[in-house]
Every structure is written in structure tokens, then in C-alpha cells.
Amino acid sequence: MSQDQTALSDVPPLPSQEDEARRTHSRLRRRLLEGQWKQDLENKCASFFPPQTVSRFGNLDVSRNLFGTIVKQLAIQYDNPPRVTHADSDVDEFAARVRHDGLWSIGARNARNVLGMREGLMRTDYSTERGELLYRAVPSDLVYAEAAADNPDEPNLVVEARLASLDVGDGKGEQDRWTWDVLDLRDPQDPKYRVLLPSGRAQIEDARDITEQVLGGRFSGGDYPYIVNSAPTLPYALFHAQRTGELFNPYDNSEQVEATLLIGALWTFWGYLCRDAAYSQRWAIGVQLGGGAIRGSGKAARKEVHLDPTSIAMFTEEVPGGGRLGQFGASVDPERYQLAVDSFEQRVLAHSGLSPDDFQKSGGAAESGYAIALKRETVRRIQKASEAQFERADKEVLALSAALLNANEGGSLPESGYSIRYMAVPPTPSERQARVAEATSLLEVGLASPVDIVLAQHPGMERAEAFAHLDTVREERVEFASMDKLPDAVADLGGMLAPAGGEVKAADTALNGAQVTAATGIVERVAMGALPRDSGISMLSEFFNIPKPQAERIMGSVGRSFRPTLQE
Residue 176 falls within a domain, yes or no? Predict the structure, then answer.
């Protein structure tokens, strides 16, 4: 069976005409996401501008895809592979296996579908020929689904339209045809996996069963292949951008979809105006420009006169009394038109729940608007809000993956209980600096700890991990205290931490980075007993030109009651 069923020019037959409106709108969204929306833009231009104007446009401008740009910036859940763990088992090899077999790379495509189309499905299978797991991102417009009343947002029937090259005995030979993969758990005691050839009515009961022809056998009842913890399950995990208690929520944020088409039409018109209406038009009455030569032929024939700054244009009078020369101003200002469209884009984004503060400011003038580039903090916030929905479905994928490996490779992997941690978008250098500065100011007034500084630098860390990181740093600083120069890796916190007592803060010294490192080295030598406390305080005061009371505060209890604990 073909693995590529994204023939967007064809509308696959699927059950339920009542569901066709959803699928039609979802197909539009997918065309926008996949850059195949030129025909949609042409239709929008034809409905927005007079036909005579549209006929002069030439190329349509599909470069300004507002909807696709925003969705692609938000679909970053799998840019860094999530961390998979299990409370009762070591599953590092399993995590490496699903990553190698493409779960997270295919998941990135599915994340784009989920955020753009509001739902998306991940199909999980096992290839005995290749000996590996197979994952497919299935767009929601290629699916019909049903759910039980007591679990309305989880399907128990999925019909997926897929293209297959088949000879169905109709005299036409082997051709690409739409088929249905039908996975039916409406009766859990009799699970069904069938491949059907739909008829003209597109109803399951009227479709022709071609399971044996396509799959080489039957896979229903006791032969159903997708079993997790001894219970049948669907090979599809349905991902929601937002849980609504329904299988599909296709129209959410449809304003942005419609606005993208309108903005494309407006930018197409802008290009047309730049080409044909953004310059002054000269005119002449009763005069003829002398000289020149005929260029071109037929309808393209024209008379040209070469002029440059050293030339004198010679005109001859065509009517008595002299002629006139003049110039019309440009009929449109492209820059002002551009600002108007930019302003419209901003209003569209505001109605989508995104404010100008969520975007990186462009480098131009204030009135030039905002670049369509989300701040990482905004991406991080939206990513966090969607994690619960993705985690729910990803756990289903992991459970089925483990079950398929157990069934086909004789493993003993747990088939439930997996935990997933998504990696946060790392901060930019400027974000990191601002976060650390804020945490440092809170540390100075006693409202934060060094753990908060680590978390400010690494927003994806858990608090326990940051605490363990500080323990490691403290131990290593003591270990290397006798060295003339500390390794760069040991200075991970930039001298912000005391050697182990937690009372010394380099921020109190207002020194630069190199001076803070040197001052920390003096404190460490006193802690190790290599320097007397008084000598250390004098060195801090003299070397760095700071008052002795401040040097005393930096030294804290080091050299009095504090002594580092050495590792044996």
C-alpha cells in the first residue's frame, strides 16, 4: 500500500456527508500548512477584486502565509526529542529505539497538523520485513471517526482514506484507487481490521472487502494484531490541540485562516500596484518627440528614443499654438499601503489571542509594525499549555509501540506507565541574561535561592535537577580549589555561588566576571586552609579596592566555623 496518500487535488470518499464540511475546512488548512494554497488564493482574489483587475495581476503572492508561519513556529514539541522514563523499569533502550524508528521526527509533522488543523492522528505499526516500528502522521481530513458516548473525544472507530495501486477486476488494470483502512472497536469482544473499497454511496456497509488482497490475510476477531495489556486497541492515537469533549474541533481560530487568504490577496494587489501604478505618468499634448527607432515587432512594436543626462530632447509641434508636456503623480504610495496591510495583520493576530508583545519587534521604525516572529517566551508558554494534550496521546503511542515490540521481537517491555518530559525551547542570550538578573535580585533580598538562578539559565530543568546540579558544582569547586585555574565547566554559575556554605554571593562585590572568579578563588583557598582568614580579607580589600566590611561580608563564615567537607 502506498505510504503517501496526500493527493490534495483529489477529495477522497469517506462515510457521512454530514462530516464533509469539517473535512473540507481541514483540507484548506492542510493546503495552507503544506504551501499548496495558490488555487485558494486565486479564488479569494476573484471574490474580492473585479475580474478586470484580477486578470492584470500576473503572479499571485503566496509568500505571506500568516497562518502557516505562526503554526510552524509553535509546532516545536519534538524539535528536541522528549525524555521517556518509567517508574519501575529502565527504558533507555526502548526510548532510543522509538527515536531511531522515527517517532519524534514523524511526531514533528503531526504536531504541525495538530496545531494547525486542531487534531491529528499518529498511526503505529510494525514491519516484519524491516524489523522496525512504522509511524505515520495522518491528517484529520483523511479520516472519519466515531466515539462512544461515555468517552466522546477518543475514537472507537476510525476509517482512514488511503491511496493504493490495485487491480480490482473491473477491466481497467492496476490503478491508484482510494481505499479505506477500517479499524473498529465498537464491539471490544470482536475487534475488526479491514481494508475496504468504497462504492459510490461511500457507506461502510456497501464497500467491498479487499482485506485479503491488500494485507494477505484476515486480521479481525482473534487475529486482531493491536493488543496492549491483553486488550484490543486502535493503532491510531488522536491528538487534540485542545480537549473539548468532542472528537474534532476543526473551526477554532478559523478567523486566522480566512485572514491569511485575504492578506495574500492584499499583498498580491500590492505587487500589482508596485509594478503598474507606483510611478509618475508623463503625458504630452500636441507635440512629437523627435528621433528614435522602432523596436520589437507585431503587438510588441514600440518607438524608443535613447536619452541620458547629456542629451537634449527635441520635440516638434503637431498643432499650431504649441503643445504641452506634463506629469501625473503616482496613483498609490506602496509604503503607506504596506503599513495599512501590516496594521491589518496585527489586528488579525490580536483576535487570535496574540498581542504585539508576543512578537519580536522589527528593526524598522515604530510604525512599521511587528515581524511575524514569535518571542521564545511566547512559544514556551503555548508549548507548556499544550503539553497535557500531547502527553496523553504520546503515552498511547509508546504503549502500543512497546506491545508491538513485545509481540514481534519477544520483548518484555512495560505496556503502560510511561512518563514523558518535553524539552522547553532554550532561552536566547538576552532572555537568559534578563532571567538570571531577575533571579539574582530576588536572591539578594532573600526571596530566591541559587537553585532559582540555575532554573533561570535552564528553563527546561526540574527543580530537583537544578539542586543536584548545584551539589555537583559545589563538590567540584572544593575538589579543584587547589588548582591555579579552575576549569571553565566548574564556573558554570559565573561565580554566583559560595564554595559550599551558601552565604557568600559574588553579586555583592559588583565585580566583573574575571574579578569574581579571582575573588572566589581567594575564598576557596581560605576555606581549604591554604590562606589565613585575615590574609584573605586583606587580599579581597587590596586587590579589588573594596572596603574591608564588604570583604568581611564576602568571606562570611569561611575560616571561622565553616570548613568544607572533603570527599574520600
Answer: no
Full domain range(s) for residue 452: 429-555
Q: Is 283 helix (H, G, I), strand (E, B) or coil?
A: strand
Could you tell me the pTM of the whole model? 0.74
What is the DSSP secondary-structure string of 429-492? Answer: HHHHHHHHHHHHHHHHTTS--HHHHHHHH-TT--HHHHHHHHHHHHHHHHHTTTSSS--GGGGT
Strand partners, 315: 289
Q: Alpha-carbon distance 526 to 531, whole Å?
A: 5
Instruction: Encode burial over 492-505: b for 16+ CB neighbours within 10 A, e otherwise.
Output: bbebbbbbbbeebb
Establish if 126 belongs to a structural domain.
Answer: no
Query: Is 92 part of a structural domain of the chain?
Result: no
156 belongs to a structural domain: no
Q: Strand, coil or helix: what is 163? A: strand
Strand ranges (E), 252-314: 281-285, 287-289, 293-295, 302-304
Distance from chain centroid for Cα 404: 29
Question: What CA–CA distance (Å, rounded) separates 339 from 342?
Answer: 5
| SS3 state at 238 | strand
State the SS3 of 464-477: HHHHHHHHHHHHHH
C-alpha cell at 536: 584573605
Integer Cα distance of 128 and 404 in angstroms? 11
User: Could you give the number of structural domains in the chain?
Assistant: 1
Cβ–Cβ under 8 Å, residues 516 and 507: no
Do 68 and 259 touch, CB atoms closer than 8 A?
Answer: no
Using the Cα atoms of residue 469, residue 444, residue 458 and residue 525 in order, give the sign of their dihedral. Answer: negative
The helix/strand count (H/E) of the chain reads as 16, 20
Q: What is the pLDDT along the chain (568 residues), one digit of tens a residue?
A: 444 444 434 688 999 888 999 999 999 999 999 999 999 999 999 999 999 999 999 889 999 999 999 999 999 999 989 999 999 999 999 999 999 999 999 999 999 999 999 999 999 999 999 999 999 999 999 999 999 999 999 999 999 999 998 887 777 788 888 999 999 999 999 999 999 999 888 899 999 999 999 999 999 999 999 999 999 999 999 999 999 999 999 999 899 999 999 999 999 999 999 988 888 888 888 888 888 888 888 877 877 888 788 888 888 888 777 788 888 888 888 899 999 998 888 888 887 777 777 777 654 443 344 457 788 888 888 888 889 999 999 999 999 999 999 999 998 999 999 999 998 887 778 888 888 889 888 888 888 888 898 888 887 788 888 888 888 887 777 766 655 544 443 343 344 334 444 444 444 444 566 667 777 878 877 777 767 888 778 878 777 777 888 888 888 877 775 555 544 4
